[in-house]
């Protein structure tokens, strides 16, 4: 174990979970020195960049940014100890080297194993290696039905029902979610959304994912493309990308 305690950040959207972990960590003052807490992924990115903690205890399921999306935004990833109530996230990769995995509710005996692991390892995994673990997670995790999208508006988090979403559109580094009533900028990329959205959504262009249930009509266009009209107030017309020709044909059964 290193001579000084690991500077530590607790990241969880549930106050009771943060309080419980804080109390458990008090049993190991020579191992952990808690710097601060973060109540969501967006706040956590700011505090990690500011405080540069050695270790983060990271909840996976959080509004705004989940634990994996948070890590994708970091240039330098600290030692990660995942905490979650969902056992389908368990992967062998989380139990090796600098990554550990704790199932909620956290237990003192299990945290003791984490302390012992920290005393044995010498070098943290590289950010690239951790990201490869995240990729493995995305390919293996049990699919969960996503029914809403979280957007940030000022200091509030809004939950938009997916069946009201007509389409997502990327413009440079931003993504906008559109409904009949309004549109919002969101924190997730189209690639991240594509991994999680239910089968009602289809990517038809590198910059557009749309809701198949809210399509009015589809017309053939030149160069193996299609013009898709959405059944919304604006009757939005979207021209598909050529590379998406096959999946659009499969969707339409032609």
Structure in words:
The chain is α/β, with parallel strands linked by helices and 254 residues long. 28% of the residues lie in helices and 32% in strands. It has 7 helices and 15 strands. The protein has helices spanning 15-25, 41-51, 67-72, 108-120, 127-140, 190-196, 245-252, and strands spanning 6-11, 32-38, 55-59, 79-84, 100-103, 148-153, 156-161, 165-171, 174-179, 183-186, 201-205, 208-211, 215-221, 225-230, 237-239. The strands form 4 sheets. The chain has a 5-stranded parallel beta sheet, sandwiched between helices. A 5-stranded antiparallel beta sheet has the order 10-9-8-12-11. Strand 6 and strand 7 (156-161) form a beta hairpin. The protein is elongated and about 65 Å long.
């Amino acid at each position: 174990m290193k001579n000084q305690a690991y500077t530590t950040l607790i990241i969880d959207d549930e106050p009771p979970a943060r309080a419980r972990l804080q109390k458990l960590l008090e049993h190991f003052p020579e191992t952990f020195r808690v710097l601060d807490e973060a109540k969501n992924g967006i706040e956590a990115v700011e505090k990690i960049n500011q405080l540069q903690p050695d270790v983060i205890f990271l909840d996976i399921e959080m509004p705004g940014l989940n634990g994996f999306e948070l890590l994708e935004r970091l240039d330098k990833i600290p030692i990660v100890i995942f905490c979650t109530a969902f056992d389908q996230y368990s992967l062998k990769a989380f139990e090796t080297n600098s990554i550990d995995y704790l199932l909620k509710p956290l237990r003192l005996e299990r945290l003791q194993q984490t302390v012992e692991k920290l005393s044995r390892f010498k070098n943290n995994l590289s950010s690239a290696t951790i990201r490869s673990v995240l990729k493995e997670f995305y390919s293996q995790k049990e699919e969960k039905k996503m029914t809403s999208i979280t957007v940030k508006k000022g200091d509030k988090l809004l939950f938009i029902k997916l069946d009201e979403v007509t389409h997502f559109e990327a413009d440079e580094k931003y993504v906008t979610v559109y409904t009949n009533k309004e549109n919002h900028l969101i924190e997730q990329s189209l690639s991240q959304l594509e991994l999680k959205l239910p089968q009602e959504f289809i990517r038809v262009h590198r910059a557009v994912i749309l809701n198949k249930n809210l399509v009015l009509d589809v017309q053939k266009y030149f160069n193996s493309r299609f013009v898709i009209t959405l059944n919304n107030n604006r009757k939005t017309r979207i021209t598909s990308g050529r590379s998406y020709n096959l999946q659009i044909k499969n969707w339409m059964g032609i």
